[in-house]
Model the fold of this input.
Amino acid sequence: MTLSQPRIGLFATCLVDLFRPTVGFAAVKLLEDAGCVVEVPAQTCCGQPAYNSGDRATAQALARQVIAAFEGFDFVVAPSGSCGGMIRQHYPPLFEDDPDWRARATRLSVKTFELTSFLTDVLKVERVAARYAGTATYHDACSGLRELGVKTQPRRLLATVEGLELRELEESEVCCGFGGTFCVKYPELSNRMVSDKTARILATGADVVLAGDLGCLLNIAGKLQRNGAAIKVRHVAEVLAGLTEAPAIGESEGSG
Amino acid sequence: MQVTTQAFQHNASAALQNPALQKALKNIKIGFVRKRAAAVAKLPEFEALREAGRDLKNHVLDHLDFYLERFAAKVTEHGGQVHWARDAAEANQIVLEICRSVNAQRVTKGKSMISEEIGLNDFLEAHGVQPVETDLGEYIIQLRHEHPSHIIAPAVHLNRDQVADAFQAHHAPYGFTERREEPRALLDEARQVLRQQFLQADVGVTGANFCIAETGTTVIVTNEGNGDLTQILPRVHIALASIEKVVPTLEDVSLLLRLLARSATGQELSVYTTFSTGPRRPDDRDGPAQFHVVLLDNGRSGMIGGEFQDMLRCIRCAACLNHCPVYSAIGGHAYGWVYPGPMGSVLTPQLIGIETAGPLPNASTFCGRCEEVCPVQIPLPKMMRHWREQEFERHLTPVAARFGLGVWAFFARRPRLYRQAANLASWLFRRLAGGKGRISSLPLAKGWTAWRDLPTPQGRTFQQQWAARRAHRS
Done:
């Protein structure tokens, strides 16, 4: 392994793959700018929906798939604290009774990182070369915050984006109500939580809300747009990489 | 009490549409969350205390039989009596028999969640003994024929005018005919009514926050002093405790007290911390003639050594309730049994069965805030997930959810097929959106689109675009 040019396996996440490819390209750009070689092995999902639904067998099968596809890289990076947390915190205990897979899971888990945490904590990136004219606010997605300690890393990088003012969100650490399958199993509760979240987002007066997890962002964007709010919603990587040409989440070419 | 855990979805919906409840629940953030944060900020060693608290409780659970026997021997040595209750029915019967042995008509009660768990009030009333709750919140909900909605603030779901209504409806016989609304006036009124009850009671029942093995002492913490009057004035004091409440020494209690008050109410220490060791001795100025401790198992010994053992560390501070976005949106009654919030979502299935309590461990986003604030670091989300695993294994998961998961898993386990399906889904979503960037109604995803728009894919999938870019580069 050459630390000067580490080989990264990008775990794009299934939501980014389907809904927001820009986030994948933003992650690639940030990693390449920091001197990494990035590859995207064939991938589906980290298995968290199965894991949190109690389907351990499917979660294990998907974890084995991810481990096999990614264990050859120097690092695994995900533009998501949720999927990153799944691999880092939950893969090893998933193989409690299987020493071989447990060892492989553990080896993978220690080299898996959430994107902004990898850039700042591992690569020691201090600034990004991006411009964004506007006021942003930031939502701390739960898994990244509590499972991986992602809190200051995105803020430190955002502080170096030229033209961007960061306005802190009240109760930024309170869940937005997405919660994977929770949002469709308990839609009324989820709606209440995202309504509280979006009210606080609007109270900041910011013109864009950022976060590090696409699940939260789809939920927040969907609620804001249902209510006709004009504030834009983007993944933090898009702003850090300067890839803000594409319409914001839930917007089309004409609407933005 | 009637169990409505199966109706959680319905209960939650009703709670969200109840304006009085929603108004009352706003107090949780001001009264508990902010005060806890301030108290914790003032104590730099709080995280170290949490670890010590966790380790202490783990030690006790690893040697529970030893400490329980020691505790029981010490209680007896000091002239008290210990009663072992396997389940709720046995515990109720023990309390009733003690009441009957002294011809008790009236029992005053300090706040006790164990008494709620075993349904003691209903049982005593059905057998001719009148229980009177003396914690102000418990007293109010007893007047309203309700159950606690919170484990330390039983009436947190109520507003002042509802308390005024309850007092007006019940206090005329005590000479209070005028409706009062001022908190101070309501408090004075309750105090005067309760004072008569304290003096007339034959038996006082309290819970126990801790049982000290070293000394045979039970400990209660209160902020109103009602616990002291409950246990000192009547002839008989009965302390109800579940078996995991035992701690080795007085020193250990001081550690847990520091954690408990800060986590619960943001206080450094509760106003009253009362230690009870045996009945009144000849040279004591007051105290009961009899001291009984009822030690309840009710399924807890079965948790030792299993995947839910960590739950027995719980010291009932309610921080997990106060910080839970689900609890704070709907309050405690929606959970449908005695213990609400994250701790209830783990404990309730153990006590009444996962078949009955299935919705509770599912009513969480796994945001992890409960575990983050728990003073003894109980991994609550992990244990809720264990319940979901049991539900899945036993086919208790709803059929539609299981089917959906199965279809998704079929594709997710076949990367090539998955990519083709994702390409198709991307195309389909975009077509449905008609260039708008989002969908406002999707019959198969009503849970989502009833409340919010669904942003649609930007274009072809990331993996498709990446492959194209790679081909172009090489």
